[in-house]
Structure formats: structure tokens, C-alpha cells
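Aim 2 progress update. The chain analyzed this quarter is reproduced below.
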Amino acid sequence: MAGFTRIRRDARRPAARRLAAVWLVCIAAFALIIGPAHLAAQEPSTVAGTVSDAAGQPLAGADAFLLQTLEGSLTDQAGGFSFNTRATGPATVVVQKPGYLEVRLAVDLPLDGPLAIAMHFVPIVLQPITVEAGAFRLGNLPDVTLDDLEVVRTPGAAADPFRAIQTFPGLQSVGEGAGLFVRGGDISETRVLLDGATVISPFRLDTDRTISFGRFDPFQLRGIHFSAGGFGAEYGDALSAIADLRSVDRPTSSELGVTAAIGGVSGGLQIDLSESVGFRATATHSDTDLLMRLNGRRDEFDAVPRSSDLSGGGEWAYRDGGSLKVFALVQTDGVGVRIRDPSYSGVYRSDARADLFAVSGLDHVRAVAFEWGLATSGSRKDEDFGAFRLDRDDRSIQARARMEVPVRPGVAVAAGAEMEHRDADLAGSVPVASHDNAPNAATTVFSSRQSGVRLGGFGEFELQPSNALRVLIGLRTDRSTFTGRATVDPRLSATWRLTEQLTLAGAWGVFHQVPDPLLFEPTLGDSSLPAMSAHHWIGGATWNDGIRLVRVEAYAKRYAALAARTRTGSARGGGTGTARGFDVFVKEELGFLGLDGRIAYSFIRSERTDPDSGRLAPSPFDATHTLNLVLNRGVGNWLDAGVAYRAATGVPFTPVRDAAFDPDRGLWEPVYGTPLSERLPRYARIDLSASVLQSYWSDNTTVFFVSIMNSLDRSNVREYRYSRDYSERIPLETPFPRSIYFGVTTTLPF
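Predicted C-alpha cells:
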């Protein structure tokens, strides 16, 4: 007999034995009365069968028994069971095994033959593991680090999502602009996307002479997925980081919003057309003349910074799980800055235009998700200063598709492809000698059109065998006609949730990026440049108990085939570099003080090839220590006040050690010292902000806001200028002295 037979006995006392003997006599007499035929019907019958899993493999150790009598046995190694019973008629056979769903089978006893029973695993309800190495989320997304109000209320950020990102660890403080310098990488190494479409020019007033701002209003965005490295194979053509912006969904109410501030005015309209269709439109005009006069800076500009933009978007949810989105943006900006250089004093002018039109879709067929997108992104910038002139017109046309298939709980496969066609029209002139910017200086004149296509594809395998472990394995390949070569990028990330509060995460990967099309220009460029590459290694831990979030990460990066421009404007490839460091981020609710606070600290050591000397030197973005501290306090639901402190080590620069006079040109020629051997002074700044929320009629929201940037009026040095003979080094101080900005915004529902 397979297994063993259960025997259930009762302990018997002597009195009980005497009583049992009486009962036996009665039973024997009853048996004589009903006859031998009925006794034959009470002979034991056998209940037998086999138990297997869903794949047909035998299951040992399963408990098979009758529900009515509890008679039963365990299955042997072959999955078989057998036991005897005197029960007859309808009965229920029950089979149980830990990790499997219980089986109940209605039978008639005695059985006609052995039973064949199949068992299935108990479905595992997996909790999503959202912690990823190097990644942060902002806005109205699941598991965000900063929600949309925290982004808007970040002091000194001027409601710019990119400046809110700058308060995260891993971003180096390089100047006052909104550019993202991530873990030793240049600003161009961060790819910015909106609804999956690459944004060629994500910053306005993006020049070496002014302060840049992001092009996107925070209220246009549902959220941002930002990764400082180690991102998945879905993202290509990015060497250091990804900022993946998601536009807002359709509005659920109709209203008009108006904002008036010292630097400009804007109006926004959102209309909820139906349960499935809605759209938004925003118009903004910024003119900083009054702001500059108020803050005593008007004399620095021939034409103060200005910009205008029109944007809009809509969504059609045509069925459950299916939607279509459209987003469009047109923006212009310009500035004229007075500059005094050793060789020329004049006005630097910049006029720029940017546009973006993106259509994207999401649909589901059963459990399979499909995403697609079509987009065009353009940028035009005309720059002029003395002998330097650059007119550049960029256009990108993009198409992408992605599919994700859940194989079973905890296992999913994703794949996708993208195409990007890039045109860059370049024309201008650069001084032959970088130090001679006079209008009559000798120049190199160039004019060309660079066109290329990049094709990319990826595949990813996601495995989450339990609520503790998630692994993502990916492979990506790209081929660009600019470089004429294909790249292959393997990537791996893993997350291990040790407890509900503590999670470990790591990532490794290879990343490639096509150099700027300007570097392939035939006059000053190099048509043989390959794709730049980087290897990322990241490891860290996250503690999150709902009140306190602590995140620590260490990383290392190795660069190869870097391409950059020299002082004279020519392209130089073959650069190498490294970056290594660690980041700490803490966010906590200080309930006893009524404060919400966050602090981010970054340490980095980075170096890369200096394009002018060809020598390995500290990276121009190597701010060794960067610290950001943000505190906010709310009073009821009507007042919010905040303070932000930002400090950083000065970034490296190449000093001028001497100068030689050129009698033929009547100019002093600088003699540069060791590349990037000195640093700018330490950077520090304190910003204050406050907002008051009021409601003056039903469904109205009115917010009065004020911000004081660089409240202590610290003179941060962003670079050095020199006297005509280079004997005197003159600090060029921050374009952000103490500045006051204020305004009001209100909504008008209808």
C-alpha cells in the first residue's frame, strides 16, 4: 500500500471496555438478524489515485483524504496514494499540499477505478518593486520622490521642473542655469524626452552669457522619470542621464487660469469636453525689463531677456486601456548682453526659436500593452558677438513603438524600436585665434548641412520571482549614419527588498551617444568620429518607512571616444575619462516642527581629456562637493513658506599664466597654464519663498507668491575675464544677485 493508513484510536478506560463488550453482543445479534448479504456490503473498499502538477509531474507529500471520515494517506514519490474505507455512497475526496490550490472531488463509493488529480500553484500576488538604481520620480506618478506641489514650491527653482531636479543628488552645481550636469557628464549627455519624443532644445535662453530656464511649465506635466545612470535598454543615445517628461492627462474640469508677475504674464485654458476628451492651451509672454530695473541690473543688457510661447495638448480616451495624446509647443526667446573681453567690448546677441509636436498612443489587447509615438522637434538659434557668428537650424523627425507582454505573474518581456532623422544646417564664422573677437579679426567661415538617421531597437526581460527580488536584463543596439557604425549595449539592474523599509539596488550597463552634428561639419569637424561610450556601475540602498526616506548610492563611470570642440572651434575626438563618487539623499517630515525637509549631498571625482591639450585633466563639471537643503512649512491650507540652501565646490578652469604681445595685430596673446588646474571660489546661495492660498468664490483658487533668490546677495564667481594685457584677472560675478520676484495666479471655473 502506498504511503500509510491513518488510524484514529480513543483512549479507553476499564468501564468503557465493559460497555463496549455489551455493544459487541448487540451488534452480533443484529448481524444474525439482517443476514450475511448485508455484512458483505460493509467490506472495505480502496480509494486510490495519482496526484500531479499542471505540467503532469508527480507530486509527493500531498495529503489525500475523505472529507466525511478523514481517512486518507500521503502521496509517495510517484504521486500515488491508496487507503481503505468502509464508507459508501456520495463522498468528497480532498487533496492538499502547501503552495498549491486545494482540490475537492465529488465521488461515489466504492470507486470504479483510480483517480487522476492535477494541482495548481497558489497564485502569488506580487507587490511592485519601484526602487531603481539612479532613478527618481517627480509629479503625479506612482512612488514619487517629489510631488507636483513640492516641485512648484521649491525655493529658488522659479517653478522650473529642471531646477527642482537639480536639488537631487548626483547633479553637480555648474553655474546658475537649468542645465543638468549629471555625475561628471556634460549637459549634452542628458537626453530630455516628452511623451517619448526627444526634445532637441529643452532650455530657453540657453547661452554661455545668460541664465537658462526649462521650456516646460510644471502644470503641463503629469510627472518626470529622472535617471542619473544605469537606466534600462529602452533609452538610447544618452551617455549620462535621462529626463523622461510625461504630459498631463485630459482635464476633468473646465477653467481659465491667469498669472501676472513682475517678469511676465500667462493665461491657460482647460476644457473637459466629455468623459473621454479634453484639452489644454497656454500662452505666456516674459519680459524682464521691470524685473531687471527693480533688481538694479538693467544696465547689463542691451536687450533684456524675453520669451514668448504657445503650447497645448489634449487626450482622447477612446476606450478602456486605449488613449491618444497630442502635445505642441512653439517658443521664442532673445537677449542682448553687454560684454567686455580683452580684445573686444560689445553686445552678445542671441535669438532662438524652438518647437515640438508629438502624438502618442497607448492601447491594450488583453494583457499586452502597445505604445507608439510620432514627433518632430526643431530649434533655431542665431548668435553674434564680434567676429563670432553662428546660425544653427536643427530638425528631428521621430517614430517609435514599444510592446510589453506579461508571460506570467512576475515575468514580462518588452521590445521596441525607434527611428530618428536629424537635419542640422550650420553657418557662421569663428575667430582663427580664440582670444581675438574683434569684428575685423581673421575668421574661419563655414556653411554646411549635416543629415543623418539613427535606427535603434531594444529587448528587455523582467523577472520578479517574489516580493523581494526584481531583475531587469536588457540589450540595445543603435546604428547612425553620422558614425556609420552599429553599437551594442547590454544592461542589467537588480533590486532586492530585504524588508518593507529597506531595499538594495544595483545596475550596470554600456551606453552610447552620437556626437553633436556640428562636430561632423567638414570645415572644422571630423567626419570619422565614432559614437561616444560610457560604462556605468551603480550600487545603493534605500530606507523608506513612510516618514523618512534615506537613499545612499555609489557609482563609477568610464568614458571612451569622447568628442568636443577646442577653443578655436575645431572638433577633437578620442577623449577618455572617468567619474566616481557617492550620493546621499534624505527626505523627512519633521512633525514636531511642522516642517518637510530634504537634503542632498554629492561627492565626485571626475576627469576627462582636455580637448585643447589632449591631456587627461579634471572634468570642467567636477564640483567635488554639492549640497542642497530644502525646508518647507505649511500653515493650515493657506500659507506655505520655504528656504533652500545650495553650496558647492567651485568647478575647475584653465588659468592664463602669461601673455605675449603681437605687434602685427596689436593684441596680447594669452599663455594658458596647466589645463583645469585651478578652481572657481566656493558657490553658495540661500533662496526664500512664500505663497498664500485664497478662494474668493466657489471653485476659485488664487495664489499670491513671492520669491527672494540669493537673499544674502552673495557674489558667486561664475568665470574670470581678463584685462587687455591679461595682467589682471577680473571675476565675472553671478547674474543672480539678490533678486525679488512676485506675482499672483487665479482660476476662473466655468
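Helices lie at 14-34, 36-41, 148-152, 161-165, 289-294. The mean pLDDT is 87. These observations will guide the mutagenesis experiments scheduled for the next reporting period.
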